[in-house]
Please model this.
Amino acid sequence: MTIMSASTETAPGIPDSELRPARGIDAPVWLRDLWYMALPGRELKRGKMLAKTLLGEPVLLARDADGKAFALRDICPHRGIPLSCGRFDGREVECCYHGWRFDNAGTCTCIPSLTADQPVKVERIRVRDYPIAEKHGLVWIFIGDPALADATPVPDVPGFAADAQPSHIEKMEFPCPLDDAVVGLMDPAHGPYVHRAWWWRTKSSMHEKAKKFAPSTLGFTMVRHAPSSNSFAYKLLGGKPETEIAFRLPGVRTEEITVGKHRFAGITTITPLTETSCEITQTMYWTMPWITVLKPVLRHFARTFLEQDGKIVTMQQAGLAHAPSLMLLEDADTQAKWYYRLKKEFARAKAEGREFQNPVKERVLRWRS
Ligand code: FES
Ligand SMILES: [Fe+2]
Model:
């Protein structure tokens, strides 16, 4: 698929025809050496394990008896059966085929078939373990070279301590590649068409917007501003809210809203499961007691929104199956352009063994929505 741009302004040195080149070193399906949101912490019960495909890799996720989450490659090194088909006693995972046992670091602790005089060093047998971080009630997994995990910051939820627990989580699988989900969710022009509703916005409420953007960690930020007055949902918050929205690779969007001394934060993560499916998780945190009262309403809004986005990207796949040329047009599509540029620069910097240089420049974007 190729994307053409009809923008009057192109980034220096990056022809628009390069924005979405054929898959290759510059344009992988997904980026490695980054933290991906694996699942909300509350889904991982103490002493339990579950299996999940993340970026095409089979992963066993578990929480040990002490409450520590861990992740192993979900393939037994003996004969390849998924370890998640076996048993977990809160300390060790036991393979269901021949009973080999592994601890939470993936080290083999027992091979039941060995006799006393067979000197196999079982601790030399290992299943790959993944770096894991649990923050803000979300379990993040580092996919890539584990040696790079510590130096790569885990995305933050602005305004909330790392031990803050989510007030609400909404999750959905989209049957589309990562790029289409990311671009679909950051797209500012589809609101009046896809999310048309009396309580949100209508075609007639469309007006011109101008928002200031600046580069930020692995992405860009729509700098702090008062949200548009045609958003009924913001009115529900009361007072004069201010909001700041940030996007970062690989597919993480955070939104922080402050109203007086109260704050609301949302983090939307898009995690690819396979090349043609991804999981969108919207996690919300708030300090306003009145939102808790309105939670059923909020849940309805959040669910409806996600369903509308999911439906649109699903329909889009029918067209994209024919590999058409596409357009990224003017400011309404500039965030999408930035996403492709960021992704490409990240991949290129890795391949060339140099520092990532954020390609986004501070700019005001104008569009109607
Ligand atoms: S296949 Fe796992 S112990 Fe043999
Ligand atoms: Fe949307």
Helices lie at 178-186, 191-194, 232-237, 289-293, 295-320, 334-352. The longest strand covers residues 262-274.
